[in-house]
């Protein structure tokens, strides 16, 4: 089990799904955690349950990111880990909506999934450079298998998650070239029981069962399974691993679609 004792982490989108599982895992592994979410009720309850701190955050508000990072540093003295997990779907293919609705959906999903992730990376690096003992940290950005095999039914989500993959590599190489011991990696989850999927099931009954069949394992991932991969990347167990992608998809991307 990765040892996160004494490390300080920020986890966005902590109210449910992978974010909630990451908070639980990090606290269990010894980290001090600040969880953030727009859902104050569920986010605060999760953090109270686990002993983490909580802050309301809209990750697309780039001006607020330095304040979020400062809160973690003020509370715990440093920042070692950032998990950029918060995300949303647009629910629209390229020709599904009229222009006004399409571009509104596109702008919002990219603001959250991509600009929010970039702003988080930027604020975290600034704090990690000033850590006691020297620059050190780990950033894990959560993408999706749609970054590799995009959804025709959601152009904004697919495009934003594809961009997160490349963003992570750019961040990783910038830090490496500047001789900063700050790693940046991407986790690519497959079909996982998250709040987004639960909400979609209410609109489209049977969706969860259909999505489960996209994996040869014929099931969804438990968020805790993805959190385990995140914890490994956040730990000191893989110091040479940066700019990499860890796929946690139950082999969904490994099989020909006809089988």
UniProtKB/TrEMBL annotation:
Keywords: Oxidoreductase
Single annotated GO MF: oxidoreductase activity
InterPro entries referenced in this protein's UniProt entry, alphabetically: NAD(P)-bd_dom_sf (IPR036291), Sc_DH/Rdtase_CS (IPR020904), SDR_fam (IPR002347)
Stored Pfam families: adh_short_C2
Keyword Transmembrane belongs to the record: no
SUPFAM superfamilies: NAD(P)-binding Rossmann-fold domains
Top-level taxonomic group: Bacteria
Protein family membership: Belongs to the short-chain dehydrogenases/reductases (SDR) family.
Alphabetized PANTHER family for the sequence: DEHYDROGENASES, SHORT CHAIN, OXIDOREDUCTASE UCPA
Name of this protein: Oxidoreductase, short chain dehydrogenase
Taxonomic placement: Bacteria, Pseudomonadati, Pseudomonadota, Alphaproteobacteria, Sphingomonadales
């Amino acid at each position: 089990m990765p040892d996160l004792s004494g490390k300080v982490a920020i986890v966005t989108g902590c109210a449910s799904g992978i974010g909630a599982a990451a908070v639980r895992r990090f606290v269990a592994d010894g980290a001090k955690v600040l969880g953030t979410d727009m859902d104050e009720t569920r986010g605060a309850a999760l953090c109270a349950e686990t002993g983490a701190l909580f802050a309301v955050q809209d990750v697309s508000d780039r001006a607020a990111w330095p304040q979020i990072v400062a809160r973690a540093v003020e509370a715990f003295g440093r920042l070692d880990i950032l998990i950029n997990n918060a995300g949303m779907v647009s629910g629209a293919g390229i020709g599904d909506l009229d222009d006004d609705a399409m571009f509104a959906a596109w702008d919002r999903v990219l603001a959250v999934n991509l600009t929010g992730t970039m702003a988080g990376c930027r604020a975290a690096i600034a704090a990690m450079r000033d850590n006691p003992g020297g620059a050190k940290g780990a950033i894990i950005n959560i993408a999706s298998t749609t970054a590799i095999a995009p959804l025709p039914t959601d152009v904004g989500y697919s495009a934003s998650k594809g961009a997160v993959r490349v963003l992570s590599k750019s961040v990783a190489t910038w830090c490496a070239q500047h001789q900063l011991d700050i790693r940046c990696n991407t986790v690519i989850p497959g079909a996982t029981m998250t709040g987004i999927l639960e909400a979609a099931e209410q609109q489209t009954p049977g969706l969860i069962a259909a999505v489960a069949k996209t994996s040869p394992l014929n099931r969804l991932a438990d968020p805790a399974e993805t959190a385990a991969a995140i914890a490994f990347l956040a730990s000191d167990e893989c110091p040479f691993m940066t700019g990499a992608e860890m796929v946690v998809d139950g082999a969904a991307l490994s099989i020909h679609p006809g089988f």
